Each structure stands twice: as C-alpha cells, then as structure tokens.
Amino acid sequence: MYRIGFACQYRHPDERLAAKELESVERAFNCRSTTLRWLNSVAVEQAREKLHAVIAHNLEAQGRLLEYVGELPPALRMLRLSSDLLPLYSHPAVAGFYREPAVKASLEQGFARLGERARALGVRLSMHPGQYCALGSDRPQVVENSLAEFEYHADVIRMMGFGRRFQDFKCNVHIAGRLGAEGIRALWPRLSEVARNCITFENEEKTYGVDACLELADLAPVVLDIHHCWINEERYIAHDDPRIERILESWRGVRPTMHYSQPPERLMALGFSAVRKLEMAELLEKVSKRELYAHSQRMWNRWTNAYARGFLERFDIMIEAKDKNLAARDFYRECMAEEQTGSG
Hints:
Number of helices: 14
Distance between the termini: 20 Å
Strand content: 5-15%
Helix content: 40-55%
Radius of gyration: 20 Å
Strand order of the largest sheet: 6-5-4-3-2-1-8-7
C-alpha cells in the first residue's frame, strides 16, 4: 500500500471561516517558536517559563496533529514533524536548559508518548532539518553547527523510540556546502548511530542533483524530489530512468519516500494550462528558473499529478505544498478517481 503525506502544519478545510477563526483553529495543531533575541531580552526565569510553555504547546500540538493523521485513510497516514518542536535546542546559549535532568525527563516522557501513538496509528513519520544544516560545508564552525542541528533531530527521533534500525524513521537533508558528498563522507563516522540509521539525502535544484546524491547511496538512502530534479535537469526524470533502480536499491528493502511539489499557481495567469505538461523552455521565456523554486498552494497541474502517480507503485510520496494536508488530500482524491476509472 502506498502512502501520501504532508509536512509539519495543519490547514483547516473550512475555508469559509474568517482568517482569524482559521488561525485560531489551526494554532492548536501547529508548533510555536521563540527567538534567542527575545529570550535574552527578559529575565532568566521569564525566559525559562517561555521555553517551557512553547515546548508544552508543541508536544500537545504535534500530538493533536498525529491523532488527526491517524484518523485519515491508511494511504494518507504519513507526516513530517516540525523542526520547531524544541526551539534553539542546538544553540550553545540554550543547550544547558535542555540538559537539565527534569527537562530531559519531561521531554523523554512526552516524545515517548508521541512515538507510541504513531506506531499504534500506523503513521509513517519523518523530519527535515532546514537549509542551514550544511553537512558538506568547508567551514569548520558551520560543520559543527550542522552536526549539532542534525543530532538535535536524532535526539527527538531517539526519544520517540525510533532510530533503532535502518530507516524506521526518515530524517532528510540536502547535500549543502562546497565539499558536497566528499565532505559528508568524511564526517560520517561522527554521526550518532541513530543519525546514521535515519539520514537520507535529497537532490536539490541547483548544485547537488540526483547524481550527487547517488554518490552517497552506499551510506544512506536517496530521496528523489521530482520537482527539484525537473528544475535541475530541465526535464522530467523518466519512470524507467536507470537511476531510479539505484535509488530504490539505496533503501535496502525499505519502501522509499519521494518528494513532490509544483511551481506556483500564478503560472496559470501567464497562460500555462492546468492540464498540459509544463515545458521548461516555454516557462523560461516568461519567468526565471528561481521563480519555479517556490511551492504551490495545491497540486494544480493535473498532467504533473498523473506523472507523479506513476511512481506510487514503488514510492510513498511526501507532498510539499503551502496548503499542507489539503493539498495531500486533493492529490489522494485524484489517485482514487484514477484507480476507480482504471478498475471500471
């Protein structure tokens, strides 16, 4: 059975509600954060209270989001957790707070409950450190900061009871930094066992495409992002491209996950059809390639949806769109309609 997932935040389906009402409903499912600047601007106790409050909210919110996903059809039970769960966890100025015995015990209990619920509900989980996690940097301090940030995610994964075996949880990064795959290979022994069990490498639009990720396939799985690949190579990777088999092999028997997004809907206002293939040469006559990087609200181009569905037999698909669960729902409905048509 395939799965279709969404990333980090909940969007309420009743769009007739006023913006403030929607925000109020969605707030209960979505993480909050804070900044080091704010924490430094108040008394120590006030800063500690803020961190406790944000963490408590985030654990409750991700719990609600997990329960919501657990009530969806099995094919939609896949979720990327937010990296904002524990604000500033890897920052040296705040790390001491998280190492306090009482704080550690509370976090371990809270995340253990999340992990137990995910397993009970059959929800496939993942995380995705942000763009500043540059493991392939040629700057030593950036590497140290990136390792700390990735190990923060590994700590969350461990507290949830995952990371015990290869790819029981996916934690995805891009190959970022001047040293690229070579730099990552050099620091590989420094990653914890949990990190090595969970890490995946995703191709991106500019420097490090699919081929660069495959250089690390002996270490960790490759996450194919078909939107990034389309921009990078200026063509859609074929379903029977020989590299697809190498990507599948990198997962060592675990069902792979791929990422799927579309460029913004504003392309329709420029004359691009929702039912035709988006040809790169035509697009670049009207927009820059950088304008194609942004994610759409929904999965508006039906040709590209049909193309993506062609991977579902062998891949789970993480939808990356601004409307989150609503975009994943729409894509799933198209999949179901196609299956019913095919069986009819």
